[in-house]
Design brief:
It is a single chain. The protein is globular. The protein is built from 4 helices and 5 strands, in the order βαβαβαββα. The protein starts with a strand and ends with a helix. It has a single domain (4-106), classed as Glutaredoxin (3-Layer(aba) Sandwich), CATH 3.40.30. With 110 residues, the protein is α/β, with parallel strands linked by helices. Strands 1-3-2-4-5 form a 5-stranded mixed β-sheet.
């Protein structure tokens, strides 16, 4: 199934108000590297479902979140914990690097 697609209007409820950690994936249909990263995002969504939430936010049509979280290019990933941005990543990323980044920022003390 993959991650839930959200909009600017849903950002506060689906990301900032969540008790669990949230991975936000900024992407676009026209973005070639996004097509390479999306399967890894979906994998994380399915395999970390008990520990965190993963959402996708298309950059086209959602300028408020793009501006607020300084997304300069896609794909981009933002990690949120307790409503706070704790890490940013811009550009393509492998599944191994993605999971390492998530584990390091969210589950290092676990």
């Amino acid at each position: 199934m993959g991650a839930q697609i959200i909009t600017d209007e849903q950002f506060t409820a689906e990301v900032l108000s969540q008790a669990q950690p949230v991975v936000v994936y900024f992407w676009a249909d026209w973005c070639g590297p996004c097509k390479l990263v999306s399967p890894s995002i979906d994998w994380v969504s399915q395999n970390y479902t008990d520990r965190l939430k993963v959402v996708k936010l298309p950059v086209d049509g959602n300028p408020e979140s793009v501006k607020t979280y300084a997304v300069e290019g896609v794909p981009a990933i933002r990690l949120f914990q307790d409503g706070q941005l704790i890490h940013s990543w811009e550009g393509a990323i492998t599944k191994a690097k993605l999971t390492e980044m998530i584990d390091r920022h969210f589950f290092a003390s676990a």
